[in-house]
Amino acid sequence: MRFSCLPLLLLLSLSGFAQTSPDNPMQQTTRDRINFSGLKIPANGVLFGVDGPPGQIVGDAYLDTTFQAGTIRFYGRIGQSDTLAGVPVRLDLMANEVEIQASPTDIRVAKGLSVKRFAMNSKLGGVSHFVNVLEYRGDADAINGFFEQLVSGRVELLLHPFISVKKSTYNPALNTGSKDDQLLKKADWYIGQQGKAVKFSPGKKAVLELMADRKEQVEAYLQAEKPDLKSRAGLVALFTFYNRL
């Protein structure tokens, strides 16, 4: 615990709500009680305020904290090949790095800019495929990281996972709110066509506009299957159906 003090002369001269500062972390509630509640000053002329524990970062930056068996293809060669196969990997969304577990105590890092694509076992089952956003133009120019390639074909269904930081809400003057920053995992949908990625907001109208060349078949599919167009499973099923027409 760390304490800070303020001389009696300054305390007696306060006439309103004083502000805290890094060098003077006296709690605002203590100041208010001095000004408006007739709080008695100790004989030694000093009042103490407690500077509470600092904030922390809550959450993790990994798509999946568990290392999963995978294969990585690099833009350049690593030794005699541009590929590492059968290695445990995980994706750090905030640092844009692919971590490789060489041994239980040895973790190597591949910068996102050096990785063209990678695949790894999915915690949902099956294999997840990721491709660097640098492989696309259009809306992909404004982001970094990797697309998860959920459906391939003439119209690709892409998901861009990323980290959003929810900043601390702490108000030192009122001693309210949370001191912690939170890491929130989010994802945006994109459509890939002819090397371009366009941000996509799923819905029936957007789907029918996108798949206008097969509108009748798509409408019949939507009517019969009633897929949830806001869900991963529903969109994967629809795009798989369309790319097979």
Q: What is the structure about, briefly put?
A:
This protein has 245 residues and is α+β, with helices and mostly antiparallel strands.
Structure description:
With about 240 residues, the protein is an alpha+beta fold. Helices cover about 20% and strands about 40% of the residues. The protein is built from 5 helices and 14 strands. It has helices at about 10-15, 30-35, 205-210, 215-225, 230-245, and strands at about 1-5, 45-50, 55-60, 70-80, 80-90, 95-105, 105-110, 115-120, 125-130, 135-140, 145-150, 155-165, 180-195, 195-200. A hairpin with a 2-residue loop joins strand 4 and strand 5. The longest helix is centred in the last third of the chain and has 12 residues, at about 230-245. The chain is globular and about 65 Å long.
